[in-house]
Structures are given as C-alpha cells and as structure tokens.
Amino acid sequence: MLVAVARNAWRIYSSGCLRGCAGKLLALRSRSSYIIISRRLSHNEAHIDHISLADIEVITEQKDKKRSRGRAEKKNEGAKQKKKTESLKAQTNETNPDDSLTGFYQDLKDMVDQFSNRVDGEYVIFTQVGSFYELYFEQAEKYAGILGITLTRKQLKSQSIPFAGFPDYKLDKYLRLIFSKGLKAVICNQRRDEFSNVITRPIDRIVSPGTVVDEGLRDYHRNNHLLAITFPEEPFKHSVMEGKIGLTWCDVSLGTFYVLETNFENLMAAITRINPSEIVVDSKFDIEYLYSGKWHPQFTDLKSYYTTRFQVPSTKRKLQDYASKFADNKKLVLSTFDLLKQKEISASNLLLNYIAECLPNYSTNFQLPTRSLPSEVMQIDPRAAKDLELTETIRGGMRVGALANIIDRTVTNPGARLLSSWLLMPSTNIKEIKQRQHFITLMLKFGSFTGELIQLLKHTADISRIVRRIDNNRAAFAEYLEISSTIRYLDNIYDLIKERPEIFKVFSPIFKAFIDDASLHKLGTHITKTIDSSVTLKTNDNNNNNNGLRPDITIARTNWNIKADASKRMHTLRSKYDDCLEKYNQLLEDLAKQLCEGETTDLSLIRHLKTGEFLVNVRIKNKKSKELIENIKYEKKYHTRTSVKLLVPEWKELGNRMVAIENNIAIEEMNITNELKAKIFKHNNSIKEMSPIIELLDTTQSFANMAQEKNLVCPIVDKTTDFDIVEGRHLVVEEGLQDRSMGVANFTSNSCKLKNGEAWVITGPNMGGKSTFLRQNALIAILAQIGSFVPASYARLGIIDKIFTRVGSSDNIFKNQSTFMVEMNETAIILREATERSLVIVDELGRGTSPQEGVSIAFASLYTMIEKNKSKVLFATHFGMDLKKYIDKYPETKNAVEFYKTDLEELHDTSIPIDKRIIFHHTLSKGLSTHSHALLIAELAGFPKSALEIARESLPDETTS
C-alpha cells in the first residue's frame, strides 16, 4: 500500500505538478514522519523509506559531513589544477579571458558562440535565472538596445561580463519584438534535478514565427502555418522552370499537416494560398539566387516571407522515424507515408527535422498528412492577394480595412480560420460552391434559427487548440470542461436543426459521425462528473516554480479541481478534509473569543512562509487589544507593533493534518487527471472532428449575416466564360464611406459584362474611381467562388481559374527593382500564364517609361491578353486616345474592346474652394475621356498657385484642361 502511494507520488512529481517540493526530495509530510521518495539511478522505479524526523536529522548530519569532506578534497584538487594552469599560461603567455569563466558562464559562452556561427538566422538566447530571463556577453551588447532593456555588467571573480535581463512574465512582449526584427529566440528554462539539487538550463525551445506555441503570441483567428519547401537538384542550370517541388505545411498548435507536390509555375499561387508565417528551406539550396529574380522574376515575392535556411543535421532522421509525431497508430501513419510522392516525403522530412530541433519537448500529435488539391481552387498569386487587400492592407499591413475584416462575422476561432482559408483559396468546384450558397439561403430564410445558432456557437470551444494543450500539459482544468460543454452545445445545435425539417435535411449529414459516437458523449459526461465546475481558466505555466503546496493557508481551501465523488479515495480524503474544516472554523471562533473578546476581528490561522510553522496571527488594533494579548498563555513567536504571531498547539496539530490530507488529495487529483487524459487521447480524433462542424456552421452564418447586412445577392456560378455583374459595389470602399464622420456617403455602383477574349478599356481622371472599379470586379469574383453572396443587384459568373493584377507600383528597393521593372515582371507573368478562364485587371501599364514606348507596351500587352490568352480584361489607362489608334488598326481586336470612362465636373465659380468646386462622376459611361484633368487634381492636392500657373503655361493649347 505504502509503495503504491510512493509510486503515485513519484509520478506526480516527475510530471511537474509538485516541482521542488521539500527541497531535494519529495516529502509527504505527516505529524511525526516523512515519506521520502527517491529513484534508483539504475532503475526507472520509485522506492520508499519510512523514517522518523530524528532519522532525517542523522542522515542530514552524515550527508553534511560527507559533503564537507568532498568540498575539501575538491578544493585541494582545484588549487592544484589552478596552480598548474597558471604555470602553463605563464609559459605560453595565454591571455584569453574566457579561461577564467566558471562552468555556468562558460556553458553560456559556448552556446552564444554556437548560435552566432549558424547560417539559418540570428538567434537571441534567453536564459532563465530565477524569475528573470537574461542575456550575456556580446548578445547583451547587441540586443539590449533593440529590446529596450538596460545593459549593465555582471562582476565575476576575475572579470565582468556584459549582462541584461527582464522579468519572466514579460517574455511574450520581447518575443513579439524579436519577431518584428526578423530574429529568433532560444529559450533556456531552468530545471532542478530532484536528486542532486543541481540546476541546469537546457534549450527548452527555439521560437520562430512558425513554431509559436505560447498562447500570448498566437492569434487563433488565423492559421499559423510553418511551410517547408524542397526544390529539385540544380534547377538553375536550365532557363525553363523544370522539376517538381515538394511542399509540406502544418500548424503546430492545432496539429494540422498538409502535403503537396507542385512545380515552379504554380509555386507562388500555392504559397499565397498557404499564407505561411515562416518558410523553411534546406541551407544547401541557393534561395538568394531565387530571390534575386535573375532566374525568373516572379520569385522575388518570396523575399516578403520570413524564411529560414535550415542546416539539416548530419544525423538527420528519416521520415519513418517521426511516426510518433502523429496522433494515429504507427502502422496507419507509415502506410500513409507510403502514399506520399517523393518530393512530399522530402519536404515532410525537412519540416519534421526542423520541428524536432525547435520543439524537442513538445507533443505535436499531428493529424495524418492530407494532400491539398490545387486543381480545385482559384489561383491567386502574392501580388494579386496584396493588390486586392484580401487579408491585410497595402499600407501598414493592417487587417482593419482588408476584405477579410469586412466580411468576417464569425463568433468562433475555428470559423474565423476557415473563412480566412477560403478567401485565399476560392473554389472552382461548382457543386461545392452551390452547396455553400444553399446553406446561406437556408440561414437567411430561417432568421430566428440563425440567431439561436449564433448564440449556441458562442459557447463552443477551439477544440483542436485545447487537445494540443492537454497533450503538452499546458491546459487548465477549465479547458477540460470546455470539451464537455462543446459536446453538449453541439447536441443542442443538432436538436435545434431537427426542429426544422428543411434545415435538417441539408445539415444533418455533417453531424452523423458526431451523433453516432456514443463513447464521445460518454466522455463528455465523464469530464463533467470529474472536473469541479468552480475551476478557473488559469493555465499551467511551464516557468512556474511553485512546488504545488500552498505555504499559506490563512483561508482554508474550499475549491478543488476534481469533484469529491470522482473516486472512492477522493471521497474519503475530501470527507476528512471537510471534518478538518469544521474543526478549523470552530478553532477560529474559539480563539477569537479567547484572545480578542470582541476587540478585533482580524485574527487568522496561517502557516509561516519561511519556517513552515503553524501560527495564529492576531492584529493589534488598540491599547486594550494589546493588553489582552500580553496576558495570553500562548507562546509568542513573532511580535511587531501592529501584530503578534502565536504558537497554538491545537492549530499546529490541525494544520499538519490538513496539509497531509491536502497532499494526498493532490496525488489523487493527478491520478484521476492522468486517467482522464488517457481517455481524451483515446478519443483524440473524434474530439477533433467536432471542429469542422463548428467551422462550417460559423462561416455559413457569417456569410448569411453579412448578406443581410450588406444587401448582397446570390450569384449564378456556372461553367460558361461569362462575367456579368449588374450594379456591382466594392464592399471595403463602401464600408469606408459609411464610416466617415461627416455622414454617410453613397457608393456609386457600376455594371460590367465581359466574355473571354474581351476587354474594357477605362479612362478618366485620377480619383475618378477607375482603380476601385477594377478591384471590385475581382473581389466579386472571389466572393462568388468562396460561396458567399456578392455586392450587386445581379451576378452571373463562369468559373475563373486565375486572377491576375497589374496595378500601381512603386520602386521596390528591397528587391532591387525599379517601378518599370516591377511592371514588366508582373505583366510578363500574366502574358505567360493567363488562360481563357482568367480575369486580368491592369491599371496604368506603361507609365514608367517614355509616353511613346509606354503606349506601345500597353497595346502589345492588351493585344496578347485578348488574342492569345483569350482572357477577360479590365484595362485602366491614361493613354486612351493613343491606345485607340493602335487598336483601330486590328479589326478583330477592335471588336473585342469597349471603351468606358469616368469624368469630373468643374463649377465655374472660382470663389468656391477647390474641394467643393470639383464634382467626380464615378458612374461609368461609354466613350473615351479626352482629358485626365491632372492640373485640377494637382490643385486639389494643394499645389502652389505659382507652380500651377507655370504648368498651365507649359502645356500645349490642345492639352489644356
């Protein structure tokens, strides 16, 4: 029996629940003895000795003598070695200051040197010392200023070293700062060996944008993908983009894992769809040459992503060695590996090697590798995603102001992640699109149902995240309850759906596996019966050095993590503790009457933080209470001007008993929790399968909510190549107009009708709405193919396979490219890759060179897009008249092009301010704009009058506006 208790205690201790308890040994203290738990060095099992307090004192004395002898011997040896070293230095004139460093600082110096020599990025080493994280040596000098912390020096015996630090609770703050500077962090947490009491500080994790597992650094509204890419050998030998490329990406905190084999042509679109926080490539691959654009210019956009050139260790493990990183059984995982293509295997191996180095102690429990199918999604490259501001704005990179923020009405993290994923990978599967539309239609039809659904969804949890936290001992007890409550609320949602046959027919299939899984529902019930509902969401902190025992029990404990009836032993222990509580309250009442006689109510039973003594603390409020205390019979241990601490035998006895029972309760709680974790792990896949239900319902209600709020219509999506939008609107611009403090401004809608091989050439003044019109049509196409309703009065769209954008650019100094070079690179990609199902939007092509050459390039590009690519083209330009002259020379092209314009009106009263005198007409009308009204726009921008006069005088008469 006693041995069983000891084994349980050891298991608790080794799990970290009772770290540091009773110093060097785990001691379960009772009134007259200790149970000492240790472990044989040669056997992974606990053994136990039951010894008295007197025996402990003898053992301690013997150990102290042994230590003293050991220190003396070590000191003599050290003196001899020091003398020998100094003699050697004198002979060789050695002056290296590192030779005087102690073991701890020498280890730190070696680590700093090691990471300074790496080629895969800059690393900042945070070493935990007590409740601080510290930087040393050249790292302190280099990064203290960047982090905004004080640089000082630490004095050692023979030298001082650079040093900086910050409190451990500010770690997340400084990690965010490090990421913003493109750096990585090496976290070395302190650990105390339970036998030798030696503190070590091994690498706990390497933190980079793609390997974040810290709650404070993650936005669970978005995926945090880590992407590994493997390239073909020596791809740059050929000018043609040949060879297969392997992509593997995962979200470490959620356990998702995807693979894909693609080619260079589709690489950038795939990366846009994945939207990685970090890309990992083998350090042997010349990624800088790919970045440069010298081989093919479109790959310069890769430089916008956080990239790690990972130096794969020489002892690289094979993919099969990582089967344990996946949640399913090894046989199933290995059989799935066998189905992967060669490049997918290479990328997966690279990714898992990188994760193994960065997160050596983290349990990933990935889902089985899933192959992404790019053939069923619209291709959007990084440039188009940025130009259209799908997930973040061009200026500032903010989510507010991007399309994703405008259309997001989700109420759960899983729903928000799915919506963001759909936005970057619109479907080309008509059946799937129509199913999503049908879901939205039903939710709009049954508005009261949708309202109730939203309220129920708000109570569901981010299941994938919680399961991962439980796997890694990071979850709070309240998060266990969130699993059971999510099961319960999904049952409630299913009951809500059953009340409406029309909805039940459509949505019931996604619930089938969940409803049929009786064991999952039993698990939910078991969790509810096990975990006490009073627990809070306080999470387990890996850096918490609390030993698990409460040193101060001024207020007796009434809240527990596990319910009393969770086990027979727990029931017995809690009953004993409740009996103690009654005695505690009675003792408190008796002492109050005896000691205070009504003069003070400030009396408490405490356990002294340093000595562990059980004392009665009495506060002295006035002269009379002071006199009462001076005459009491109990021994006074600590006396101050305002309080006195008394040694009361009854409290000492009761306190010891309460602590002993509480320790036993802690053991039983951990036993029960481990059993519960095992059951959750057994149902791991079933639990995570709840997440897709939540995702789909939440994203669908979000679309329905937005459709009603924004007056959207259901588009017709078919296999034709038509593009027909009536009274289309730009959702983001429309939202911005409504947010203006001066009142609501109406957005001017415009229609657009195109077939493949046709183009609209749009002319007009700056600020006339040309760019807005171009972008709104691309956004409507994307919204239609993610299954959403669209901002128009009518829309019919044939499936679009790719969207290309060539809109306003500026010099890209970061990529060593001029404005014109950027234009040419982007246009070249369009001319090579656009198809008859592609939508191309082009804004002011050819402006970066002379007018004559610019017009010729604009015409050649437009001609090729229409005649060769057969794409649908929206082409805004200031070269309208010149471009028409070229087009008129080619009858077939002339028939495929229509000209539209926007305009402005200037009032003749010059006394009216310029911003009131100019009226923009944003409605498109057929025809060519004869003027760009550049001087009026310059005046509106605040040009000095003298400069405007010079500009007017310089213009030929025929161009004066």
Overview of the molecule:
The protein starts with a helix and ends in a 7-residue tail after the last helix. 39% of the residues are buried. It folds into 6 domains: 1-95; 98-207, MutS, DNA mismatch repair protein, domain I (3-Layer(aba) Sandwich), CATH 3.40.1170.10; 215-373, MutS, connector domain (Nucleotidyltransferase, domain 5); 408-423 and 445-708, Orthogonal Bundle (MutS, DNA mismatch repair protein, Chain A, domain 3); 711-930, P-loop containing nucleotide triphosphate hydrolases (Rossmann fold, 3-Layer(aba) Sandwich), CATH 3.40.50.300; 931-961, no CATH class. The protein has 961 residues and is an alpha/beta fold. It contains 32 helices and 32 strands. Mean pLDDT is 82; it is low at 1-61, 87-97, 541-553 and 810-816. The protein is elongated and about 115 Å long. The strands form 7 sheets. The chain has a 7-stranded mixed sheet, with helices on both faces. A 6-stranded mixed sheet has the order 6-7-5-4-8-11, with helices on both faces. α1 crosses α21, α12 packs across α23 and α19 packs antiparallel against α21 (649-682). A hairpin with a 4-residue loop joins β6 (152-155) and β7. Residues 64-87 have a biased composition (Basic and acidic residues). GO terms for molecular function: ATP binding; ATP-dependent DNA damage sensor activity; mismatched DNA binding. Heterodimer consisting of MSH2-MSH3 (MutS beta). Forms a ternary complex with MutL alpha (MLH1-PMS1). Residues 64-99 are annotated as: Disordered.
